[in-house]
Structure formats: C-alpha cells, structure tokens
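Hello K.,

You asked for the raw outputs rather than the summary table, so here they are, unedited. I folded two proteins back to back in the same session to keep the settings identical. This is the first:
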Amino acid sequence: MKRKTRRALAGSLVLVGAAAAGCSSTGGGELAPGPQVNLVPRVLVTVNDGDTGAPVRGATVRGAHRSVNARTDRDGEVRLVGPVSTVVGSAPGYARSTTEVRRGSAGIELHAPRLQSRQYGGGPARRRHVPAVRVGPPGARPAWTFDARTLVEFPPVVENGLLAFGTNGGRVFALDAKTGTRRWDDRLGGAIASSPSIIDGIVYVTAMDGTISAYRGDDGARLWRLRTGSPIESSPLVVGGLVYFGNWAGVVYAVQAATGRVRWTYRAPGQIKGSAALADRKVVIGDYSGRVHALDPRTGDKRWTFAGGTRFYGGPAAAGGRIVIGDVGGAVYGLSARTGRQLWRHSTGGAYVYASPALARGAAYIGSYNGNFQALDLRTGRVRWTFDMGGRISGSATVVDGVAYAARLYRQGEPRRTVGVRIRDGRLVHDSRDGRYSPAVAAGNRLYLVGTRKVYAYTA
C-alpha cells in the first residue's frame, strides 16, 4: 500500500473512532468536541509597474496590521498569511499604493512620481518638461484616441494611471491613462480654459464660471466647490496643501486643498489669465497690467513686482534661478527669480506671445504670432534656433525626450498642424495634421498629443 493511501486510511479511522467515542460518551446523537483544524487564509498579491505592466520585484507588501508583511518575488508575487482585507505596496522609486483584497487575491499598481505630469507644465515650476519620461516621436497609429467632441484648449494632467482634462464645452473628463476608457466626467457651468491638477488622487478644476472644484479621482465624487464670482483661466497650482490661482477680477487665491477654504487673497492691478508658478519658494504670477508678482506662499505678502511688461497672458516657468514669461506686447522676458530684476528681453517684433515657455537643457522654447517657434538661451535670451510654423502660435510648447512640440493656431481654410523638433538643433522630426493650442504632455511610458478636440495616446 502506498504511503499516501495509508495516511488517508489512518485519517479515516481516526474520524470514525472520534465519532464512535462521541456517541458512547454523550448517549445521544451529538459528537464530542474533537481536535480543531486551524485554517489560516492566504492572500495572493501581485505587484506591477502601473505604467509598463512589468512585475516589481522586492516590493514590500503588508496587510492592515504591519506585522503581516512580505516581499515580492521575481514575478512580483507574494502570499500573505492571515486575515487581510486591505494591502499596501511600496518599493524604492515608487509611490505607495493601497488596494482591497477580493476573493483571496489583490493586484497593486505602483507608479514612479518622477514619471508623472500632475499639474499644468508637469510640476510646480511649470517647465513643461518631465526629464525622466522617455518616449520618442509618435508612430503611425496611437494606442488609443478619445474624442471630446468639442475644443480641448489645454493639455491633460496624469497621475498614477488617471488622466484628466477639460473642454471649452464645460466638461471635465477623467480617463484610464492606459486604455483611454472613461472613468467619469462632469459638466460645469462654463468653459474650461485651463488644465486641472491631480495631487494625491484629488482632481482640482478651474472654470470660466468662476469656480474651482475638487473631485475624488477614483469615482468623480465632488468634495468641494468655491465660487469666486469672476472667470478663471488660471490652471491650479497645488503646493504644500494649498491651491493657488487667479481670476479676471485680478485676485490671486490661496485655498486649502482639503476643504476649499480661502487662506489668503492678493489683489493685482490687472486681470489674471495665466497660471502661477513656484520659483525660489515664491508664488509667481503675471497680470494684464504688465506686471509680474512674487508672493509669499504662506501669507500672500508681496516679495517683489516686475512692472516692465505690457500684458501677460501666459504664465511663467522657472529654472536655474530664472523666470521666463511671454508678453502679449511682443516680447519674452528673463527675470531673476530672487529679485524680479530683468535679465534679458527678446523681441518678437510686436507679435503677440500668448504662449507659456517650456524649459529644458538651458533653453526656453516658445512661439508667437509671427509663426516662429524658437529656442532662447535661458541665461542670455540669445536665439539658438528658429523653426517656421507657417502660421500663428498661441499654445504653449512641451519638451519630451529631447523633442519640443508646438501647434499652429488653426484658421479657417488652413490645415491643422502639430510639429516636434529636436531641441539640440531645431530639426523637424514629427509633423501631424491636428492641433490648435497646447499640443502635448507625457507621463509614464506614454506621450499624449492634443488635437483640436481629440486626445491621442502613444506608447513608448
């Protein structure tokens, strides 16, 4: 007889003996308590990179109780022993993520913060360049396309697999960044002429009806809404638990990210249509009186004012102790982030500069209504190269993996156009027939191009 059969037979004899003993000891039909079998549940947890789908080896996974934890194997898998309803995953270079256990298993997606583009311009400095993202010019076919059915003026933002953007029709969309599937949407009372921000799973949206709203990223539940009474084109800047933006009444707001309660306000002498940036630990924003204001983030107190412009529509960008901002009066300025002193001025011959610059590798990339897309030396303002777009440029540029993207402002009878040029020499490497304003954003392993009303996703 095989060993397995003998063990099974012995187990059966033990159970029969226990049953017989139970009957004789009680004198009835009930069994006496026998040895208890302790069945300890096991939970299979799989940890993957949320952008590439690759397994994350050596990730720490723990349950609700910190004593229940382990590390993933080379396949990104681990089994936790014990009653676990929620698991938390973490790994070096990734943000921590939490998910629920369902039917004895759980899947955790980890995302690298350095690969996210969570605010307009990528981060608080508004450089429109996420250096860690490596994805070249788009191929022939996108991984997915989403048609918003109305004008998309500002590019999306992306955090941990969630992509969000607004339309001139007043709708905010939240999509799955990998598939383009709609997760949720909402309609506001006015056009959305700005990019949202996504910080720690909360989506902040400003709109031309004078409101700023906060939504829970998972399901679109509205957490709060603040009405300012004046249109807002300023994309929200979220830093240190506060949200900064300006409106047409010339008021700069700092509100608490968690509640929407106003912390402080600052009144500028002109309308504010551009976004604020964080530069040298100050909130910097331009207005339509031709001034740039640097404010204390905690109190709103003025640190310095530059008053040498005409009208500032596009917002500033900051890098290397310098601020670059375009002027509707026909110039691009380089300012000291510490003092506001003018370091250089580049003239566009009176052509409007509505765009905000992209900053990368010691240069500012910006276009104007004269049709020139240019690279300006960040230190001196000297022109490194010029690319002729063949039409006006209104939207802001974006730099992705050594390529600067810009779009031509569409006019009736003209073909739409988005280009990508190499930042080292201005050579054309991409040319497509869609686009109007800000043309691109990148996060994870994807490049998202923005057409007139469509968003195209290309995977590296």
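The second followed immediately with the same parameters:
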Amino acid sequence: MLLLGTAVPHLAFAQGGDMSAAQSSVGTEIRAQVGGKYRDFYARRGYWPIWVEKDRIGPQADALLAVIADSAADALDPDDYDPRDLTRLVEESDASGSPKTLARAELALSRALADLVADMRRPFRAVRMRYLDKEVEPSQPDPTEILRAAALAPSLADYVRTMGWMSPLYLQLRQASTRYDDIWADLPAIRVAEGVRMRPGGRSAEIAALRHRLGLPDGDAYDRALAGKVRDFQADHGLKPDGVAGTMTIAALNMGPGHYRRVLSLNLERARLLPGPWTRHVVVDAASARLWYYSKGGLDGTMKVVAGTQATQTPFMAGMIRYATLNPYWNIPPDLVRNKVAPKLLNGGSLKAMNYEALADWSANPAPLAQSAVDWNAVAAGRQEVRVRQLPGGGNAMGKVKFMFPNDLGIYLHDTPQRNLFARDDRHFSNGCVRLEDAQRLGRWFFGDAPKADGDAPEQHVPLPRPVPVYLTYLTAVPTAQGVQFLPDVYDRDGD
C-alpha cells in the first residue's frame, strides 16, 4: 500500500562531505551488529548510519523519543518502544563516542522507529474502506520500507518530528483532539434544560445550569463571558457561533464529552488509513465536502467539492486515478430518467432539445433509439428502464472533464457547470460522484498542464503520466486553525 511514500532522493549518507575515520568505523560496527531485514536496509546504503551525525547521535533521536513519549495519543503504549533503554544507549554513545556504542544506539533507534511506524499505521478498529486496486490495499510495511522512506527525507529530524509517515489530516486531528480534551472534555457533564432558548441579558435557573456546564463561576446571568463561551462551543461543534443557546446548541452540549471523545477516536481511525504526504495522492472528505492533494512531503492544494446526498452517498473508497475523460457524456441514473426525464418527455419535451439521447443498452457502443421507440409511460411508472445520456457541451453535468478511477459504482471526480453550489456551507447534492470546484487546477496537478480536448469528439480518454491514489473518506471531526470542529453526520455513519 502507498503509505509511506518516497521523498526526493538524495544520498543521505554523503551529507557533510567525506567520511571521517570514526564514521567509517561506525559503518563497520553496524555491519557486524545488524541482522534480519535491517541488514537489507543498511547493506543497500553501505552500512552508513541515519542517526549518527558528526560522530554522535543527532537531534533526530530526540525527535523520536518525543514522539514515543506522546504516542498514547495514537492509542499506543510508549513503554512498548523501550524509551528508557533508548535514552540510556544514546547517553552511553555520547559519553564514550566509540563506534561500537554508536552502532548499538543506531540500530536500537532504527528498530524503535520501524516498530512505532508499523504500529501507528495499523488500524485499531474496522473502517469499511473499499479498496479498488492492489496499489492502495493495506499492507503492513516492513522495516526496510519504513527506514528507506525516513532516510530519503531531506531532514530525518523533521520527518520524525512531524510524523511524516502519517497523513497531515491525521496529525492535525491528533493535535486538535488534545486541544479539545484540554478545553471541553473535563467540564461538568450535566444536562442543560432543553426547550428553553437562552440568550445574552437573561437570568434564570436554566442559565445557571448552562454556566456550570461550561465551567464558568456560579451565577444566573447570561453575561458576556457566557456568550463568549457559548460561541466558542458552537464554533468547535459545527454550529453557527451566534452566542445564543438554542435547541441545537443545547442538544450538542447534552451529548456530553464521552460522545465527542468517541467521535474523535473514530475519525482518527479514518484518517489513519490515509497516506503520508510523501505519497502523491488525493483525499476527498465527503462529510466536509472538501478535497486535498499532496506530494513531496506537503499539501499542494485544496478545494471545495460537492458530495453525495444522504440518499446517494459518496462511498468510503480508495483507488487509482488512471485517466481523464474530455468532452464527457453524462449517463443519467435510471431513477432520474424515471422521475425527471420521462415526465418532461410525456409533457411534450424532446430529447434533442435537452441535449439527451436514448440508447439501446449499456455497452461501450450502443445503438441510438428514437424518442418514439421508447414507452415513456412505462419508464415513468418504473416498469421499463432505458439508458439516457447527456451529450457533451457547455451544460453537461460532467462539465469539460472527469477523472476516472475505474469502479463498478460509477464514482469519479468531475467538473460541473453548477458553480452556485460551491458557495453553500452544506454541499451534499450529487448522486455520489464528486463535483470539483476547480477541475482545471486539479488537471494541471495531474498532468503538469491542463489536458485539452482534440476537437469536439466525445469521450476522449487521456492517461495520466502516472496513476495517482485517491481516497474518499468521511471525517465528521476536522482540524481547524483553532482546534477541531465537529460536523453533522449527514450519512449516519458515526454509529457504525
């Protein structure tokens, strides 16, 4: 699985100029001490160390020890990685400076990193992601793969410090989860009266309970401090931050910290399945209706999308985007043909005027059907099904391009002429496919330059220079500049 990715290649072991005699001796000691799969990694790099710099263990070891110390945030046990023993080995190597102790510390640090990364990438609960291609199927990375990705990073210390093997969305959500616990999780878990709208300037026993719930001093006044606390809670929980404690705000408060901890944990598991930023890939989050694309260790861009409705959900799915289709047709879903197209035709409309055509079957080269050859009453009643597609053009629902990752659900990323939908906060309007705010920009990222159609011919397929993984996920807790925001569970998946 494309989890760890590859950085910009360079000879890490050549940094700093010529080898010193002591550094060369460390390589000799590594060769004498290393075994198993770790030998494969070190042999390929001439037994040159990744943790030793200028004849001592470098700052990347401190970064690793800090990540291990904080690994409880990843549902791991820091003691599993022997931080005391690692610290002792590093201190001994600093004190003696001998090649033997440096090699011993080097190999212990590599083993700890390999174990930590493998454990951190392993899901702790089942998330029903569907994998379409071998390239994205989960597999436990072996130490050679883990250490190679680390060694190829321009800075090993930065790679470890930022947990470059994990998705930036995971890391941001992990940090936000800690902040959430600090601010909200330990407040009194009391119920606040529902059915009572509380607003600034009021005084009541219900307001006194609200103040207690939000950790403010005793009192019954809806003062400026309470309004600010309510606004903060609303902003962090996906509500309009107006400072008024209405029905939705009270309901969110009464869910209690246990509910939000569970949602955070669930979303961390979903984000755990995503690759690190050294893997060139695309992430689509159906819950927030947003897309991100990454390569070379960082975020290259983001944009809004339109995702599926509650009835026609965008699925959990991962695959490989392999080609773009220019001047695309739109194959209209059978339920829309039944409920939208057939009634219009029965009321005097024409397929030609709507830029549609009816087809004999769902093959690659279907024969066209005359409008008069179809029993549209039977189609409207659901007794008969007919394939109808929209021809390419300015009004085509697919826009000018769609990006294809072959799957039997007919899900893909595509352009759209309905630009007004991107101005909405709730963008769940599609039939499951993903409509792109800026398909041309994403096309430039895929191809280096936006692909251009060769004339007006429909369905022109252009292969990507290199297939790109795409992950359709569902994050109802998302990182923000301030911390974390909980989003509506529009697909009712958080109870899975």
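The first helix runs from residue 21 to 33.

Happy to rerun anything if the numbers look odd on your end.

Regards,
P.
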